[in-house]
Give the backbone structure.
Amino acid sequence: MRCPAPFILKLYEILEEGHDRNQIVSWNKEGTGFVVWSPDEFSELLLPRYFKHNNFSSFIRQLNTYGFKKCATNRWEFQHCKFQNGNRHLLQEITRKKCEPSVFPAFLKASSSEPVGGVVDESSDLLLQENENLRKEKLELQMQIHQYKSLQMKLSDSLSQYLVNQNQFRRTC
Amino acid sequence: MRCPAPFILKLYEILEEGHDRNQIVSWNKEGTGFVVWSPDEFSELLLPRYFKHNNFSSFIRQLNTYGFKKCATNRWEFQHCKFQNGNRHLLQEITRKKCEPSVFPAFLKASSSEPVGGVVDESSDLLLQENENLRKEKLELQMQIHQYKSLQMKLSDSLSQYLVNQNQFRRTC
Amino acid sequence: MRCPAPFILKLYEILEEGHDRNQIVSWNKEGTGFVVWSPDEFSELLLPRYFKHNNFSSFIRQLNTYGFKKCATNRWEFQHCKFQNGNRHLLQEITRKKCEPSVFPAFLKASSSEPVGGVVDESSDLLLQENENLRKEKLELQMQIHQYKSLQMKLSDSLSQYLVNQNQFRRTC
DNA sequence: TCCGTTCTAGAATATTCGTCG
DNA sequence: GCGACGAATATTCTAGAACGG
């Protein structure tokens, strides 16, 4: 893994650029988490600078997605064990929680690693899959044909209409 | 389905609010599609008003996601059979394409839905029927294509013939 | 390998001929990548001089084909480890990515060409052939559709172009 | 065959909305 | 109410696929 997730990096940068915005958001005393002191100002001033929205709840959703936990009842303080002041190198260990359906990768791994031989059901399954594909492709073709049909109509209309106009023009020219 | 997808609705509204922005984007003549006449201005002025970005490519990605097709080689003109000027009620029929990461999910679904009891003959029988259907549908498609081919020929002939006449007309005008 | 790929060479030349076009595109500070500062001007002024188009997206596609990566979220900055200011001799190491049909197609191909796992039912074998034929026929259909699509495009372009000329003609007639 | 151009899709992250305990 | 999460849509970056020179 090369670099931290974009969201994590931006969050860290927001805290790095402290200045007088410490009254809006800052690391906690121990540097083991951060506190949003003023959700309103944070949402209106800082969020739009770093993200494509100004909703505090969306920000919270991202925090949860990356495994941050709210760790106080009376203020907006969040923690993640790998998110610490001064330890930028830990950031890349903070990943999305997405629990990967994992049915898939597992299947791929299995099919590629072990010889497919011997299991009769698999061949039938493959045929099913084959037919599934064919059906989908057929739908695609039908949609394409329909579109060209529309275009054709449009073209035909334009042309005939133009011919009419043109004849009138000739007469009056 | 209650109302159209957000993206579709916004797209329609952009075109509805024509005014003098028709030089940036507008319905085509027949109202069966739309043309982005100036991608630059469209990206800088209109996109940020309706979406959270100003990237033309992101806009294109959304169009493709909802099944729109580019239908001209020299302009940014797009069509979708359910996207027509004046037919707002059709918008809700425009939906996102299912991701179905292509072949795999289909395979998984098929294999999981079937009783794993190794009844190969039954599945083979089903596949036979499946193929039968596919063949019939394919014939349908071929007939359709033949029709459009004929129409196309006529159109092309008319147009070229007209161009010839027109040139003669100009000379003698 | 003798000389760099044409695209890579042109890209390098564009950056070499800096002048006052640095406001359109230039090397980054470190010379480890480049930034397109003004995609609009870049597309309209520079692309046509070096390539056969003026589409920014086509330019991006080429960059990706050769393994360049976008390395900033707020600007069009791209990097490739072998693309550095002053190191012209590295350019020939930048090559097109090989198709590498990924895991999937390979698996599918194998399954369709030869009966998997050796012992497969006769009926299944027939179905395999059936599907093979269906696939071929589908390709035929696609080719036909593509032909009509091309014709359609040309027709449409011709017609619209002609209408424009015609209007001009009328005014001056 | 390889490269370039175009159009569309895949895949990952981001944003929004709603629900559940 | 509240904190966490699922799911749908949106945005971004990269790749697939077809065609043509």
